[in-house]
Amino acid sequence: MTSTSPLPxxxxxxxxxxxxxxxxxxxxxxxxxxxxxxxxAAPLVAVSDLPAFPTSAVDGWAxxxxxxxxxxxxxxxxxxxxxxxxxxxxxxxxxxxVPEGAEGIIRLEHSKVEDGLVDGPAAREWREAxxxxxxGEALFAAGTPISPPVVGLAxxxxxxxxxxxxxxxxxxxxxxxxxxxxxxxxEGRVRDSLGPMVPHMLTAAGAAAxxxxxxxxDTLEAHVAALREALADADLVCTTGGTMVGPVDHLHAALxxxxxxxxxxxxxxxxxxxxxxxxxKDGKFIAGLPGNPQSAVIAVVSLVAPLLAGxxxxxxxxxxxxxxxxxxxxxxxxxxxxxxxxxxxxxxxxGSAMLRGLAGAAGFAVIGPEQAGAAGQTVELALVPGV
Length: 387
Ligand SMILES: Nc1nc2c(c(=O)[nH]1)N[C@H]1C(S)=C(S)[C@@H](COP(=O)(O)OP(=O)(O)OC[C@H]3O[C@@H](n4cnc5c(N)ncnc54)[C@H](O)[C@@H]3O)O[C@H]1N2
Ligand code: MOO
Known about the structure:
- The chain is α/β, with parallel strands linked by helices.
- It has four domains: 7-25 and 166-311, Molybdenum Cofactor Biosythetic Enzyme, Chain A; 29-49 and 141-165, Alpha-Beta Complex (Molybdopterin biosynthesis moea protein, domain 2); 55-127, Molybdopterin biosynthesis moea protein, domain 3 (Molybdopterin biosynthesis moeA protein, domain 3, Beta Complex); 320-382, Beta-clip (Beta Barrel).
- It is built from eight helices and 27 strands.
- The chain has helices spanning 9-22, 32-35, 148-156, 194-204, 220-232, 251-258, 293-311, 356-359; strands spanning 7-8, 28-31, 44-45, 55-56, 60-63, 69-75, 88-92, 104-107, 112-114, 117-119, 126-127, 138-140, 161-164, 169-175, 179-180, 190-191, 208-209, 213-216, 236-240, 261-265, 267-270, 276-279, 285-289, 320-323, 335-340, 363-367, 378-382.
- The chain is elongated, with a radius of gyration of 29 Å.
- The two termini are 31 Å apart.
- The model has no long low-confidence stretch (mean pLDDT 95).
- The structure holds ligand LQZAQKY5 and molybdate ion (MOO).
- Ligand LQZAQKY5 binds at residues 174, 176, 178-179, 190, 192-195, 240-244, 246, 249, 271, 273-274, 290-293, 295, 352-353.
């Protein structure tokens, strides 16, 4: 590991995001399923009025003139009604186009039918054309996150695709001879928990995550080969383990070997400080997640999720808030990311080698450098993608 001073945590988040944003792929028209989770690259404009025609809000009778009204057929949703004559009524379904000439609708439950005539209180119980939007109106500005309701509205407003930034392809490369992919941990060897877990977090953070690679043998040659294999079909490769200076920690040497340059090399955060972000000459990213499983997740939260947000054209992921139910110690000059539940209590089993606390957490309470958290205090909460 080259000797650089760890970057302050808040700055590391912003640096990772800015690197992603600057490298975001050109916006293209993407089908909804691929656009969701990105940001609009152009304003979303209504292709038609919304509703495109007056639409009944109730099941009832559309009427014209003075009652009682003579019943003349029915109009269902999806049909085009004929114009309504004076003193006539047509049975109408919720969502059906209101006939021209209609002056009111009587709700079915308020109507009385007798001898082919209907009577009851009529009101304008329909949605006017263009009530939600008029043709050509900008519904959302460029940069708006494409959430599921934005997709729904885009469909309602007549679109089939959205101009947005494609999901970055990602691969996870798991380093470590000591790792097992089946059975129980034994004889100095432990089950790989990161290969099965991290891709789901990447998916939740907006990536198209391919299957994990590894465990990779603890030699420099094997590390370099695995990195090259992963980079061949990924925009971002997340490695796990090997970030430190142990006898078989080859990540830094492998990065040098493939000519990658550091964007971030260590972050002033506990746990997780050996995390890093590097970039290859052809602009692909490599995130080095520490091997301790909770530390690896902290690297996803701190560097990878902001990077992916930038690559999708989104703003830096906002932090939530947590009201601490108990005191939380600081970590000197480092930011402390402390697992808390929804009530603001610290979770047991929160060691950096453990996932048990994380699995039941609301997120990481952020205790800044040279600070401590006090019971009752509201602090920022770093959210874990997919949790
Ligand atoms: N001399 C020092 N040693 C260590 C320091 C230090 O400052 N000085 N920092 C510690 C910290 S903090 C961390 S975090 C780890 C980072 O280690 P590496 O990224 O090099 O990871 P490994 O050594 O390969 O593994 C650490 C630990 O995690 C287990 N592990 C690794 N990968 C997986 C996986 N896919 N699934 C489950 N568990 C995994 C591995 O068995 C080790 O127990 O360095 C400390 N050391
Ligand atoms: O940074 Mo290590 O991640 O404290 O366990």
